[in-house]
Inverse folding.
């Protein structure tokens, strides 16, 4: 049986956001190639990081509403919560 992750419901939105981020990264590369002003580049880097963070939060939300909730109901909450906390720790490091 194939596992269906909760973020699947938002797959198209996630893909759309990631394609936009891809365009932003290409735009930043172009700005650097063209020798544009440093602060303008940094503003675009910050916007791209924020967009990528939003994608991660959407996936995390799906995980909590789906996988974590299901594990708690099935009595395996502690293990899944420990796993989640390790991932959140990595995710929030800069």
């Amino acid at each position: 049986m194939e596992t269906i992750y909760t973020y699947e419901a938002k797959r198209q939105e996630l893909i759309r956001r990631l394609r936009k981020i891809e365009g932003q990264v290409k735009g930043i590369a172009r700005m650097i190639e063209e020798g544009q002003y440093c602060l303008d580049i940094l503003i675009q880097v910050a916007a791209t990081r924020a967009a990528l963070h939003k994608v991660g939060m959407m996936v995390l939300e799906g995980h909590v509403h789906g996988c974590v909730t299901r594990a708690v109901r099935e009595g395996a909450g502690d293990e899944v919560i420990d796993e989640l906390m390790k991932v959140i720790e990595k995710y929030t490091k800069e």
About this structure: DSSP finds three helices and no strands in the chain. The mean pLDDT is 91. The chain has one domain: 10-92.
